[in-house]
Write a structure and sequence with these properties.
The protein has 22 helices and 26 strands. By secondary structure, the protein is an alpha/beta fold. α7 packs parallel to α9. The chain starts with 7 loop residues before the first helix and ends with a strand.
């Protein structure tokens, strides 16, 4: 969503609203009001309350900044909150690694623990807001617009850092864990929070034209096989409470006005019963950017009729004019409003705090020791070792001739990623490394290569912490640096001054340890020649520097795997605006990447035993042949042998396996019949049909890292 805050116009409108300006007192005895009865279902309460509201009140309750309706005792509610990787934009909170780093862990169980902690902190923030009468303000309520489960089809997209990578299955597993962690255990009377799957659908850049772009001529196969699976999983498995429609058009219709997406697919095919919220000011794009509606009144009517329930913006007030003009009926508006009110009843928003268990979470959980440990452990698991020539890593803390340098070596805000909160303290690379190895000498980053090399002197080893930063890649940003455009990237190379410095260090005979920080893939061909080791550290959150130091010096054995393909350069990529999957991601890329999807090294060596498949299970052994305990991520891919148009291979299950040095562990991975769902052109659906499949079992998507089985389904 857009980072613009609520406009002064909206604030003024709410302030002078007759509903708020001349409220009637709530009845002294409201027992006759069914919506006040907590024993009724949320849906029954919503129907009753809806019937007591005026049309004007209904339109106000359908905007993200919903004012109090004091005559009925309805509290103010703001739907816009952020929790991308920790509670965002609301003061002190635990800041976890950026989601791309979490995806590199291939640890959906840890992701669930992380977001359970996030929801604890979010509930406390809301409890505090209630005490301070701030629940109507931005970032203080219980609806959180996360996770971003768009497919990261192209590394040039600046918002790709917010996603869980390029694979539909990995994104699904991570997204389901996020939703379950945020919303709390199912079966409870009240939801902990409302999570939101965004941005629906077919959305992954560019940023500069998203308010007018039309994603058209996309095959049904790509739609159902790539762009929709994660949304379907969050709807049907995690029962996500909200879905956010995207800015762009799909097949000529704005996504927030697409009957195909919001009604036919989301509600009719998948059975979704939650609410749909627009991206911020996306409804304005109907007449300002896409120009599919002549004016505001037609646009808001179209959005609601298509299935958009909550508007992030200030245009839904025009629904009153829409009813008067005969463009929409009040009864049709009620359908959306009842979904909105039912969601608020599920949160306990109308009930006393002593009835809602989540209101009793202690204020002390904010950035508590347990959450700090989760942030550190998540950062440890995100560390992805891409190159280690001559086993130069891990370094020894006894070594006296190490220099630390680079633009990200002492950059705390870089580690926070985007859509972030503010930690109590951030451990930078400099702090983390200095604590483990005080003898390391730090050189402040300058652009003068010759002076920097001279400052290194006779040090034998250089740890260079570089890459890019969230100040360069992100959502609709005013960035015009070489290689960047409006938050997106026109090149995937690291900045030239870093490239020149690494080449000079290599030429000077130094052992170069390159640490790359980014939220996306980098083109590192020259660096793979000039650096002895490459460690991808992402944006590591508040404890990223400690996790990095522990990894460099061997206290943490890296186990991260790439959730995206690291291409050699942009010449290997199709046009950025091409949404067809041919040539995109490991599933359809025919070339030779620098580092493939699923790839990541360890400080030990693993050997996978011969795999077998029977009765929906893949069985194999994992042997640690080295002298250091470690974790391997076993990955299972499928290819349908008679499908020449389909993916080269597609991830279908994975498992982290901890193995002690010198030991062998037997492991079993579930691969049920549902995993063999494949595109069926005869019915234009994803379904299981008879056929021969190749099963690839390995440690990355690269063919030489896999063993192959053939099965008939």
């Amino acid at each position: 969503m857009n980072k613009r805050v609520i406009s002064a116009t909206l604030v003024a409108m709410l302030a002078i609203s007759p509903v708020c300006a001349t409220p009637k007192e709530a009845p002294a005895n409201d027992q006759g009001m069914a919506f006040r009865n907590p024993d009724l279902s949320p849906e029954a309460r919503a129907r009753d309350l809806c019937g007591r509201l005026t049309l004007e009140e209904k339109s106000l309750l359908m905007m993200n900044a919903s004012p109090a309706i004091e005559r009925l005792g309805i509290p103010a509610f703001n739907w816009w909150n952020e929790a991308l990787h920790g509670v965002g934009r609301n003061g002190t909170a635990t800041v976890f690694p950026i989601t791309m780093g979490m995806a590199a862990s291939f640890d959906d169980e840890m992701v669930y623990r992380v977001f359970s902690a996030v929801s604890d902190e979010a509930r406390v923030k809301n409890n505090q807001a209630k005490r301070e009468s701030k629940t109507g303000e931005l970032y203080h309520n219980l609806s959180f617009w996360t996770p971003n489960i768009n497919i990261f089809r192209d590394p040039r997209w600046g918002r790709g850092q917010e996603t869980y990578g390029e694979d539909p299955y990995l994104t699904s597993r991570m997204g389901v864990s996020v939703v379950r962690g945020l919303q709390g255990p199912e079966g409870h009377k009240y939801s902990k929070l409302l999570a939101c799957a965004k941005h629906f659908a077919v959305h992954s850049g560019p940023e500069w034209n998203r308010h007018e772009y039309n994603a058209e001529n996309i095959s049904l196969r790509d739609l159902y096989e790539t762009y929709l699976p994660a949304f379907k999983a969050l709807v049907q498995e995690a029962h996500v409470s909200e879905v956010m429609c995207a800015y762009n058009r799909y097949e000529g219709e704005p996504c927030c006005g697409s009957n195909r997406l919001l009604t036919q697919i989301l509600r009719d095919e998948w059975g979704y019963r939650g609410l749909v919220t627009s991206d911020c000011w996306a409804v304005n794009d109907f007449w300002e950017g896409h120009k599919t509606s002549p004016d505001k009144t037609h646009a808001v009517s179209k959005a609601v009729l298509s299935g958009t329930d909550v508007e992030c913006g200030d245009s839904f007030g025009s629904l009153v004019e829409g009813v008067q003009a005969g463009l929409i009926s009040e009864k049709e508006i009620d359908i959306s409003l009842q979904r909105i009110l039912a969601a608020r009843f599920r949160l306990g928003d109308f009930d006393s705090d002593d009835q809602v268990e989540w209101t009793r979470i202690s204020d002390n959980v904010i950035n508590c020791a347990e959450h700090q440990w989760l942030a550190l452990q998540m950062a440890r698991e995100s560390m992805t070792l891409l190159q280690n020539h001559g086993k130069v890593l891990p370094l020894s803390t006894d070594e006296k001739s190490i220099v630390l340098m680079g633009p990200n070596a002492d950059n705390s805000e870089m580690q926070w990623g985007n859509y972030n909160g503010t930690p109590q303290h951030t451990i930078t690379a400099l702090e983390g490394i200095s604590k483990l190895c005080p003898a390391v000498r730090f050189i402040k980053w300058e652009r003068n290569v010759e002076a920097q090399v001279a400052a290194v002197g006779d040090a034998s080893t250089v740890i260079f912490v570089g890459g890019i930063s969230p100040q360069l890649e992100g959502e609709e940003m005013p960035v015009s640096e070489p290689g960047f455009k409006g938050g997106d990237r026109t090149s995937i190379e690291i900045p030239q001054d870093q490239r020149d410095m690494l080449a000079a260090l290599h030429k000077a005979g130094k052992k170069v340890i390159l640490v790359t920080c980014s939220g996306s893939a980098l083109g590192l061909v020259p660096e793979s020649e000039n650096a002895d080791a490459i460690l991808q550290a992402w944006y590591g959150g508040e404890s990223g520097g400690q996790a990095l130091a522990e990894t460099l010096f061997g206290e943490n054995n890296p186990s991260g795997k790439l959730p995206v393909t690291f291409y050699r350069n942009v010449e290997q990529l199709p046009d950025f605006q091409d949404y067809n999957m041919k040539g995109h991601t490991y599933r359809y890329f025919q070339g030779d990447p620098l580092f493939p999807f699923g790839y990541g090294l360890s400080y030990t060596t693993f050997r996978l035993g011969k795999a077998s498949y029977a009765n929906g299970k893949v069985r194999l052994t994992v042997t640690n042949q080295g002298k250091k305990d470690g974790t391997e991520v076993v990955q299972v891919y499928l290819r349908r042998m008679d499908d020449t148009e389909g993916p080269i291979k597609a991830l279908r299950t994975f498992q982290r396996v901890d193995v002690k040095a010198g030991k062998t562990v037997s492991t079993v991975l579930d691969l049920p019949s549902k995993a063999f769902e494949w595109w069926d052109p005869s019915t234009n659906t994803m379904r299981v049909t008879p056929g021969k499949f190749e099963i690839y079992v390995g440690t990355s998507s690269r063919a030489e890292d896999c063993q192959k089985l053939t099965v008939t389904i």
